[in-house]
Design goal:
400 residues, alpha/beta, globular, disordered N terminus
Length: 400
Amino acid sequence: MSELSPPIQTDFDFDRVIDQIEGEIPGPHLIFFAGIHGNEPSGVWALRNVLQRIRKEKIPIRGKVTALAGNLRSLQKGKRFEEKDLNRLWTKKNIAALSKDNFQPENEDEIELAELFALIQEIIQNQSGPLYFFDLHTTSSQSIPFIPVNDSLINRAFAQQYPLPLILGIEEYIEGPVLSYINELGFVSFGFEGGQHTDPISVQNHERFIQLSLAFAGSCDSKNMKVEESLKVWKEEYGYFQDFYEIFFRFEVEPESEFKMNPGFKSFQEVTMGEKLAISGGKEVHSPKNTQIFMPLYQAQGRDGFFLIRKTPQLFLSLSAFLRKRKLDRLITWLPGVQWASPEKDAMRVDLRIAKFLAKPILHLFGYRAMQKSDHYLIIWNREWRSRFKDYQEEDWYQV
C-alpha cells in the first residue's frame, strides 16, 4: 500500500477492464467497480495500485480478481455523469430491456450501462467459484469510510468483518443502483465509501478495503494483504462508529431547484431538532429531530440532498435473522390488506388504509424493504429468498 498520500490523479487512460488477475488455484471471483460516478476516481487508482503490487510481488492468488471502470466517458471529464446518473439506471425496466436485447441507449450514460451489463452477464455465465461484487465510491462531503449494505443475511455476515459503520436501508430511497440489481441475483454485493472525492486519504482507504476483501474472501493470504495492519488502523480511527445504522429519511432535491447545503456538515455528525441544514428552492430546511446526518450534498450534480440515520439495535438484528431463517415472512400475507405483488412471491402490496399497523420497522424484521407508491399503498420486496446461500456456505466467513 502507498506509504504517502499523493494528490489524486485525474488523467485516465484505462479500458473498461482496468486489470484482471487469475490464480492457478480455483477459488472465488471478486469483481470491483470503480468510477461509476466519473468525479470519484480514487477507487480506480486504488485498484490499479493493489493489483499492480500483486503482480510485482508475485503474490499467490486463489480464483480471480476483476477491476472494472464504471463510467469511462465521465471519468475522462471528471464529471459525475453526462445526462443521467449511471448508478440510477439499473431499474427493472432497463434490465428487462437489456435482457431481451432490445435496449436502445439514448445517451452516453446509457451506452455505459449496456456495456457494463454485458460484462456482468459474461462474468455470471462463466462463474466457477463464489462471486463477490464491490462498488467503490467517495462522497462530496468529508466523511469517515463506511459500507452501504443491501439488507440480506449473507451481506451482513460478510460486511461485519470490516471494523466500519454499516448502513442499511439505502435501497428504499434510491432506485436503480448497480448493486441493487446484483443483490436481486443473490450474490454478496455491497458498496464502500472511502472518504471525500479529492482527499488523498480516500485512495488509501480504498486500498485497505480491496486488500481486506481479498483476504476475507480467501483470495489472498492475510499477511500479504496486510490485514492486521489495516484492521488496527481502522479500529483505532473508526472503531467508535463500528455499528449498524438505518437510513430513515432522505431529502430529495427537486429538478431545477437550487439547493445549497449549509457548510461544514460531515457524515455521522449529530444534528439537533430544528437545526438549519440547507436551503432548497429558497426555503430553509431544518432537522426534524435529534439524530445524525449522512452524506450531505456538496456538489452541483445529484438529487440526494442529505440523509438522516440512527443506530440499529443488536436485538433487532438478531430477531430479524431468526425470523428470516425460518421464512416466517410468508405469514404476512395472511394479514388483511396484504397480498402478493409478483408471481415469484418476492414482493407484496400493502394497502395502508387497512394494514396501518404494518410499519416499516416490522417489515424490515422480515427482510422486506418498501417503496412508497402512493398515499394508500406500498410495494415491499424481499431479496433474502434470492440469496445464493449454497454458493458461500463452505466459506470461512459464512455464519448465516
